[in-house]
Write a structure and sequence with these properties.
- The protein is α/β, with parallel strands linked by helices.
- It is 35% helix and 24% strand.
- The chain contains 8 helices and 9 strands.
- The strands form 2 sheets. The protein has a 5-stranded mixed β-sheet, with helices on both faces. Strands 8-7-6-9 form a 4-stranded mixed β-sheet.
- A hairpin with a 5-residue loop joins strand 2 and strand 3.
- The chain starts with a strand and ends with a helix.
Length: 254
């Protein structure tokens, strides 16, 4: 099965194409600190480039796998809308994958990576902005099986201990905690205060891998209706909160 997978939960746009022989072609767009994310402008172009490299037309794609988040509102909206549009126009299968699970799975299976856990615990930490992170806990076993111990939630970085405690209650086992993701990079001091190991800032373990999205998407049962695929925001969008705040101030003024 040929699977097109992508993720737009973070500032990066990650795209991958898994071929019938399980070979994976990848492309990424990682904007600089002063640049805007290229989700809306780069996603389809990158997918088209991968298909051209593989010598496959769009009609050769059999399934689309998309990262559902949690992540930024705009990025997830673009990713999910694009996934739905592609699947519907080609009349092919569509599946959604947790971006946090993809992040943790890639970290647990990174061959030869210095900080990759063998029998340990992984924290997927995605920058949620507003001084928060989306944090989830997973247990990695032999780099083959990754199970969820604590579902993704939006918290302040200094509250990560609550996620670790919940994971312990669910049978996290022994071993060091490894935190990966752009949130782990941004809030390194706060996370290290809990004794958590964090790879170097430029480690590939901090990147959501679209190839892993394809792999996880191969295991999922496709939805029966494309509209069943929804972004996993985990909190209300900034614009909605801003409007509510303005309305609240207006009510107080009256």
């Amino acid at each position: 099965m040929i699977v097109l997978g992508f993720d737009t939960a973070t500032r990066a746009t990650a795209v991958a194409l898994m071929l019938d022989d399980r070979e994976v072609l990848r492309a990424r767009d990682d904007p600089g600190p002063a640049e805007h994310p290229g989700h809306a402008t780069r996603l389809l172009a990158m997918a088209d480039e991968l298909l051209a490299t593989a010598g496959i037309g769009w009609r050769g794609v059999e399934r689309v796998a998309v990262g559902l988040g949690p992540g930024t509102f705009t990025g997830l909206r673009v990713g999910v809308a694009t996934a739905r549009g592609i699947a519907q126009s080609l009349a092919i299968e569509l599946v959604g994958v947790s971006s946090s699970l993809a992040l943790a799975t890639a970290a647990a299976r990174a061959p030869g990576e210095r900080d990759a856990p063998d029998e340990g615990r992984v924290l997927a930490v995605i920058d949620a902005r507003r001084g928060e992170v989306f944090a989830a806990a997973y247990r990695a076993s032999g780099r083959r099986s990754v199970s969820e111990l604590a579902t993704p939630r939006a918290i302040a970085p200094d509250q990560l201990g609550s996620v670790i405690a919940l994971a312990q209650e669910q049978g996290a086992g022994t071993g060091a905690w490894l935190a990966v993701g752009d949130g782990a990079v941004r809030y390194r001091p706060q996370l290290e205060a809990f004794g958590v190991t964090i790879p170097d800032d430029f480690s590939r373990l901090h990147l959501v891998d679209a190839g892993t999205v394809c792999e996880l998407g191969m295991r999922e049962r496709p939805v029966t209706a494309y509209e069943q695929i929804l972004p996993d925001y985990r909190r209300r969008p900034d614009a909605e909160l801003a409007l509510e705040s303005v309305a609240g101030r207006g009510a107080v003024a009256r």
